[in-house]
Amino acid sequence: MRSSWSAFYQDQEALLQELYAGINLDIFLRDLIDILKVRSSNFILDLEHSEYSVSDFERQKLEEQFLKGTPLSTLLGFAEFYHNSYYVDQHVLIPRPETEYMVDLLVQEFKGKIQRVLDVGTGSGVILLSLLNSGVGKSGVGVDISPEALRVAGINAQRLRLKHRASMIKSDRLTKVEGIFDLIVSNPPYIKASSHKNLVHVSVDKHEPHQALYLPDDYYVLWFEDFFQEVRAHLNGTFMMEGHELELDDQALMLGRLGFKDIKVSPDLTGVKRYVKARFTQS
After folding, report:
1. Does residue 75 lie in a domain region?
2. Contact (CB, 8 A) for 232 and 260
3. pLDDT at 215
4. What's the number of domains the chain is made of?
5. How far apart are CA 13 and CA 88, in angstroms?
6. Which residues of 153-184 are buried (b: 16+ CB within 10 A; e: fewer)?
């Protein structure tokens, strides 16, 4: 297997390096073995050589997926995030380190201290479920406009044995949400569909759900103003959101005009502005 797949990699090295940041031959072969193991029911185990072999038809399909830049997590069917493996498919964003860092900051601050958590735009559920699994909140609600994403989140809640603590609701932002929460967290669509799109990696744009990525430029400010007003109506505590580095300062000012306090924009681990955090207390 190694020699034939090595030849494929070497023939397509320039394209694969463009599609998969940081990839090299060793990483490619390691990830390939993981993919074949996960898909073992569809592949033939060569016991004599203790390797996974594949039919010509399946091999061609897999090669085509590599050459299209299909995310490795999608090919594997899972992604590692904050000490657990989560099921993912083409209907949800692939969890990223900057989101994991936001979760870690919240765990450090709120573990064992709050009751109810709301995750807006929950997608695969990694934020909400990681928080609950780490002791942030006794119960939580994840909302998403996509029924396909909510199906993925439900699978992950069941896998982590958190279905009794996590409710998943189909809702456009907070329109179907009831009650008050101690913590509201979100990784909303925050890329302007026109003016920011040139900063998006081609593989992300091609393979991840646009509904979770983009907002129309001419609706962008109004969308977030409406969103922050909805958050204010359901918050008695802390709000934290992942956002776009070119927009967070203006969004912080918007939160201030809406009556939020203790507003702070902070960077991710690469030093890029990535989060806005604020507090609101119900009177």
Report:
1. no
2. yes
3. 78
4. 2
5. 26
6. bbbbbebbebeebbebbebebbeebeeebbbb
Element (H, E) at 119: strand 116-120
d(C-alpha 122, C-alpha 108), whole Å: 21
Q: Residues 20, 143: one domain? A: no
49, two tokens: 């050589």
24/152 same-domain check: no
Same domain, 236 and 102: yes
Structure tokens, 283: 């009177």
Rounded to the nearest integer, the mean pLDDT of the chain is 85
The two three-digit tokens of residue 120, written as one number: 């807006």
Tell me what the mean pLDDT of segment 26-43 comes to. 68
Average pLDDT value for residue range 103-109: 96
**How many other C-beta atoms lie within 10 A of the C-beta of residue 105?**
15
Q: Which helix (H) or strand (E) holds 262?
A: strand 261-267
**How many other C-beta atoms are found inside a 10 Å radius of the C-beta of residue 123?**
28
Handedness of CA 148, 206, 131, 81 (dihedral sign): positive
Any idea how long the chain is? 283
Mean pLDDT, range 123-149, rounded to an integer: 95
Q: For residue 65, give its domain range.
A: 2-69
Burial 59-68, CB ≥16 within 10 A → b, else e: beebeebbee
pLDDT one-digit tens code per residue, 205-243:
666 766 676 778 898 999 999 999 999 999 999 999 999
Is a pLDDT exceeding 50 seen at residue 46? no
Q: How far apart are CA 125 and CA 91, in angstroms?
A: 12
Domain presence at residue 239: yes
